[in-house]
């Protein structure tokens, strides 16, 4: 998992960038199709900023892959890390635009994390399994408590599955710091928006982008 597949760094970087470009093309298509498969009421016509995000995503993905491969090599572990980050970026995009986290991406990411850690790549397999289970159950319990206290939903089930996926990749011991970071960041952003008059009490907080950023940072810590 940690042996370079291509020992020529420039060639490996080029291959990684091309693979990332292909992945970004599919993921950008998924960012449009999957939410509308889940909710047919989402308009077929996207806002103008959707295309700006798409262009940024298509440029950022290969750049991330090239830089990651150049600094950390072309091992299976490195390529898996690149894929992990690209999927998280696409989930952040989808959630920010539609408030949805499609199962096809979150559950695929979860299973991929368990498979990658079969050989204890990032964490021992038992830590990955516990991470998936604890990540889901912890947020589910919070959801149930909040629902009974307020009679409203504090988060979506997609958030549970995304946290479970992060636990599968990074292990159960990483979850507390990831959740604290994501929660703190979301509160700071909401506070800034409220001060600027752009966030009203009762508005839904889209937690996916903050979880995605926490997951990306958590993965980078494995390499730095």
UniProtKB/TrEMBL annotation:
Keywords: Membrane, Transmembrane, Transmembrane helix. InterPro entries: Prepilin_IV_endopep_pep, Prepilin_peptidase/N-MTase. Residues 84-190 form the Prepilin type IV endopeptidase peptidase domain. The chain crosses the membrane at residues 54-71, 105-122, 129-149, 169-192, 204-220. It comes from the Bacteria. Belongs to the peptidase A24 family. This is A24 family peptidase. It comes from Advenella alkanexedens. The lineage of its organism: Bacteria, Pseudomonadati, Pseudomonadota, Betaproteobacteria, Burkholderiales.
């Amino acid at each position: 998992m940690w042996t370079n597949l291509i020992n020529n760094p420039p060639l490996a970087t080029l291959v990684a960038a091309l693979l990332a470009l292909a992945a970004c093309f599919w993921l950008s298509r998924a960012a449009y199709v999957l939410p509308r498969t889940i909710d047919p009421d989402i308009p077929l016509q996207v806002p103008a900023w959707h295309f700006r995000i798409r262009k940024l995503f298509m440029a950022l993905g290969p750049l991330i892959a090239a830089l990651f491969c150049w600094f950390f090599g072309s091992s299976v572990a490195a390529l898996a890390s690149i894929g992990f980050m690209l999927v998280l970026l696409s989930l952040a995009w989808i959630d920010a635009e539609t408030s949805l986290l499609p199962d096809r991406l979150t559950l695929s990411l979860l299973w991929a994390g368990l498979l990658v850690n079969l050989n204890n790549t990032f964490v021992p397999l038992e830590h990955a399994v516990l991470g998936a289970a604890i990540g889901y159950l912890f947020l589910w319990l919070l959801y149930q408590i909040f629902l009974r206290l307020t009679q409203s939903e504090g988060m979506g089930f997609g958030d549970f599955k995304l946290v479970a996926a992060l636990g599968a990749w990074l292990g159960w011991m990483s979850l507390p710091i990831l959740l604290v970071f994501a929660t703190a960041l979301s509160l700071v952003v909401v506070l800034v928006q409220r001060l600027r008059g752009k966030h009203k009490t009762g508005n839904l907080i889209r937690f996916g982008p903050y979880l995605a950023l926490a997951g990306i940072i958590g993965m980078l810590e494995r390499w730095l």
